[in-house]
Amino acid sequence: MRSIPDSQAIALIAIMSLLTFFVRGLPFLLFSGKSKTPAYIMYLGKVLPYAIIGMLVVYCFKNISLLQTPFGLPELIAGIARFDSSVQGLAAKDCTYRIYRDTRFSADKTPYKTHMGAYVCRGGKKSGFAGYYFHVEPQSDAPGGYLLSAGIYMPDRDVLESIREEILDNGAAFEASVKRAKGFRLYQGNKLKKFPAGFTAEGAYSDYLKLKDFYLEKFVDEDYMLQPDLARKAAADFKKTFDFNERLNRAAAYAFENR
What we know:
alpha+beta; five-stranded antiparallel β-sheet; 5 strands; elongated
């Protein structure tokens, strides 16, 4: 945006101030003294405020179609609930995070996050269960910063062990659930170099045991995000990960029950 010199800015402020005082004072000049205010002026004084408010309401709704379902997180939650009944009844506040950063122990004192995210899962974002994560971060190093993810991030120790035991017992079914999530890939950026205590390299699926996070990810572009039916499309993609999450949540529930 091109800036203007200070002298021009001061002149503009002065002119606008004079015009404001003139317009505000004009009625007092025209209808001062003992002269009676015309009836049409009194009429306009009564009806114009309501008319202006009505015009503002119409203007606010000018680009909104009342024939379409509302967009946003509530629609996404409803779309996921159609195939995963465990998230029924969740509100947006159960799935969203604060916008400010915890800077107490960080050298970076930037007050606000540069991303927005929603985690839709059984019991809400703090439950510890696997779920569906929708992430928007235009300034991210990731492709576009737009991400769909499903699974569980940084599970508690007992949950992690339970998931590994599930893989040990049902490795083929676990791998099949990963493959059924077309368009997603299993994140393997956080894994152990050696096998965890109590587990060995035996079995065709033993490499999964080294993982410390268990989630699928799918990066999408801006065209995807600008679709008019974004919530419906995202829910359809998340549906592909349902079997994967179900398997993880079965292991998590077992861990929670045995605490």
